[in-house]
Specification:
Elements lengths: L1 E2 L14 H5 L11 H15 L3 E5 L6 H15 L8 E5 L3 H17 L9 E3 L3 H4 L18 H17 L4 H11 L3 H8 L5 E4 L2 H4 L1 H7 L10 E5 L5 H8 L3 E3 L2 H22 L8 H16 L1 H17 L3 E4 L1 H12 L10 H12 L19 H14 L6 E8 L2 E8 L3 H10 L3 E5 L5 H7 L7 E5 L11 E4 L9 H18 L3 E6 L2 H11 L6 E4 L6 H16 L4 E6 L3 H4 L8 E7 L8 H14 L2 H21 L11 E5 L6 H4 L9 E4 L2 H14 L1 H4 L3 H5 L2 E2 L2 E2 L2
Parallel strand pairs: 2-11, 2-12, 3-5, 3-6, 4-5, 6-11, 13-18, 13-19, 14-16, 14-17, 15-16, 17-18
Antiparallel strand pairs: 1-12, 7-10, 8-9, 9-10, 20-21
Length: 708
């Protein structure tokens, strides 16, 4: 184990021995793994001092159980807090929620009778928990036709059931729908009485969600311990929270929305037989403002100028100054006001307040994806973001064109401006991931206070020989050599498909490359082809993955095609050793763009190093996407799979050093024939795991593996 941020981790005497951890009532299992024990001790040490543990913890060491044991040990036994800290367990995947719930159930089973059990509430976004939400009133239809007294009793009943034992959010949703009670509102009220809240990153790291959720749930960051699962995703999730896009057509569509909304208000006024109705005059002013934005020659001219500049540059996109964009907006609507004399950003702010009030038919969710929002709300959000970061280099605006649409997109370059202040408020945090590598980089990017951060890389509990990594030295996805390498890449893939008896996952650096591979290997070597597509819905992903298990249990096999950073390469836990081989093609460095150039410039200034900026902005994220993919097939100690990396640049020292090579068994291949021999040798050595007997399959077990 190495401390990567320069601070020695102090281990408490009471937690040195294996049995000391295993016997703790807050540890879910009967025995503890070595790395798991180290992580528990490190977590306790960090949280007692209100510090941050960044745990690069490989799959299989039991991160969830370790983090919960550490947090509960501190929250229940420390006298350093004015109140017992609330534990907020955040994850980006709903599938992880169930693991947390099940782990806490196991903890409760170990707590002796007479001692309080751990109370947990699991919550997700309102749009997923509630029936239809009325945008104009903010009310859902979960409790329609329920009288007040009955509503109170039903909520009280559901709240008690949520707290009596850890339950997955799906149970609460189903129970609420059967009993005609709002599971979302009830869960929020139950959090006040819980020890642990399980939720998405958004509840803490998206400002509008945090401000509307945490106070209602009785949570103060100052008295909370954060556990961030799959923390390598957090920087991009924070960035995504401030990414908004408007096109030149948004202004026209927003005008249509405003006019529809004004018409509804005027209709209400006629029905009420009154000349005045609340907000009508403001909407009339808003109509004039948005009409000016949709028609003003100055704004249209500005968009046209940006398009001409872009075409002359020969680039796909360009950087736009935030202040310039805001100034053209304020000049357009200047003079169209209600007499309060507002100018500049104050005028824009007033217009944004009015835009956010616009509600039209079809607005169904208060927490919705950007593409589903009405254009008034979309316009208001990007203007508010621009005003907040008008003079802050942490935000970049990028202009590009798609067809006849001219687009402006906001990009947060520095997630630390959001994450840093949040973490600093907390009573300590554990950030963990199998690919939180190097921890020091994530500490820098998230803006963690340097004097409170401990980065630790933990040893994998899996023998490296169970997952050998073969790196091809004769191919690359580097643009200048990509075409000349492709036929050899294809031959390497064919060698793996031919010599692997079971399922093979192939992850390309782009959909274009994936499509090309698909056209060349269709129906090769008896394997059925399953492929990822852009925007693939969750239910289709699940059906496709289930077919992997079904075919393997029947002795047939599949070639699964996906992309690095895609749903198949990062979002799926392939249990039961269903994947026998994984092929990663290339090094998916981000392509040149205005956003990427802005990020490199920003990091260069922030860290005073161009090489560090390149590593943080481009190289390490690309390598980490490969690390995510190669971690998919090995979930248990008895699992075995071979990994093939078709990229010679990964053998270069600067790139190789971006990987936790101490826990890897790396081999080289100089040709497809060499790859064929090494893959064949691996499966000959592990034949008992690859070819379970018929009787074993019928018994649904083989050498510790279960088959569906």
């Amino acid at each position: 184990m190495a401390n990567l941020l320069g601070r020695s981790i102090v281990r408490t005497a009471s937690m040195r021995a294996d049995e000391g951890v295993a016997s703790s009532i807050f540890f879910a299992h009967e025995s503890v793994r070595e790395s798991q024990q180290e992580m528990i001790v490190d977590g306790i040490s960090a949280l007692k001092e209100k510090r941050f543990l960044l745990a690069a913890a490989p799959t299989g060491i039991g991160k969830t159980a370790a983090a919960l044991a550490s947090a509960l040990e501190v929250s229940k036994n420390t006298h350093d807090f004015p109140y017992e800290p609330k534990i907020i367990f955040m994850t980006g995947r709903q599938s992880q929620h169930k693991i947390v719930v099940d782990t806490v159930r196991q903890i409760n089973s170990k707590i002796p009778d007479g001692f309080p059990k751990i109370k947990l509430v699991d919550i997700i976004g309102r749009e997923s928990m509630c029936e239809h939400i009325d945008r104009s009133t903010g009310k859902c239809s979960c409790e329609e036709d329920i009288v007040e007294e009955s509503r109170k009793n039903r909520r009280s009943d559901l709240r008690e059931k949520m707290l009596e034992e850890p339950r997955h959010v799906g149970w609460g949703i189903e129970y609420g729908r059967q009993r005609k009670i709002c599971a979302w509102a009830t869960a929020r009220s139950a959090v006040k009485h819980a020890d642990i809240l399980v939720c998405d990153y958004n509840h803490v790291f998206i400002e509008e969600v945090r401000e509307s959720s945490l106070p209602v749930m009785g949570i103060e960051l100052e008295n909370s311990i954060l556990i961030v699962d799959e923390a390598h995703n957090l920087p991009d999730r924070i960035r995504k929270g401030l990414e908004r896009r408007v096109t030149n057509h948004v202004f026209r569509r927003a005008l249509s929305d405003v006019q529809e909304y004004k018409g509804n208000l005027e209709k209400s006024a006629r029905q009420l037989d009154t000349h005045e109705i609340h907000g009508l005059e403001d909407v009339k002013i808003l109509e004039k403002q948005v009409d000016a934005l949709s028609k003003d020659q100055g704004l249209k001219k500005w968009f046209s100028e940006k398009q001409e500049e872009l075409e002359n540059s020969g680039k796909d996109d360009s950087r736009v100054e935030t202040a310039e964009f805001l100034d053209i907006i304020s000049r357009t609507i200047e003079g169209i006001a209600n007499g309060n004399g507002a100018l500049g950003d104050s005028l824009i702010k007033s217009m944004c307040n009015s835009l956010q009030q616009v509600r039209i038919e079809g607005d169904e969710s208060l927490e919705t994806e950007d593409e589903d929002k009405n254009d008034c709300l979309r316009l208001a959000e990007i203007l508010r973001i621009c005003m907040k970061y008008r003079n802050d280099p942490a935000l970049a605006l990028v202009f590009d064109t798609i067809g006849d649409e001219r687009r402006i997109t906001s990009h947060l370059l520095d997630p630390g401006v959001v994450g840093g202040p949040i973490f600093e408020k907390t009573s300590g945090s554990i950030l963990m991931s199998g690919t939180l590598f190097p921890p020091s980089m994530y500490s820098d990017i998230l803006g963690l206070p340097e004097n409170r951060a401990d980065g630790v890389e933990y040893k994998s509990g899996f023998p490296p020989e169970n997952r050998p990594i073969l790196i091809a030295s004769d191919v690359t996805s580097k643009f200048s050599e990509r075409e000349s390498s492709y036929s050899t890449i294809r031959d390497h893939i064919s060698s793996v498909l031919e010599k692997t008896p079971g399922n093979v996952a192939i992850f390309a650096p782009s959909y274009v490359m994936m499509d090309r591979i698909d056209s060349d290997i269709s129906y090769s070597f008896g394997k059925r082809i399953e492929r990822e597509s852009r925007g693939m819905p969750k239910n289709l992903v699940e059906r496709m993955i289930n077919r992997l298990y079904e075919r393997k249990s029947m002795g047939t096999s599949t070639a699964l095609l996906g992309v690095l950073r895609g749903k198949f390469s990062e979002g799926i836990d392939y249990s039961e050793n269903v994947l026998d081989a994984v092929v990663c093609v290339g090094l998916p460095l981000p392509p040149p763009s205005a956003r990427q150039e802005a990020l490199l410039d920003y990091y260069t200034k922030r860290f005073r190093s161009r090489s560090k900026a390149w590593k943080y902005a481009s190289l390490q994220p690309a390598v980490n996407s490969i690390l995510q993919a190669l971690g998919r097939p090995i979930r248990k100690a008895e699992d075995r799979a071979i990994i093939i990396l078709l990229e010679k640049r990964l053998l270069e020292r600067k790139n190789k050093n971006c990987m936790p090579i101490k826990s890897m068994q790396i081999m080289q291949s100089s040709s497809p024939s060499r790859t064929s021999k090494l893959v064949e040798r691996f499966f000959e050595m592990n034949e008992q795991w690859v070819h379970p007997s018929a009787s074993s399959r019928n018994d649904s077990t083989c050498r510790g593996r279960r088959y569906r």
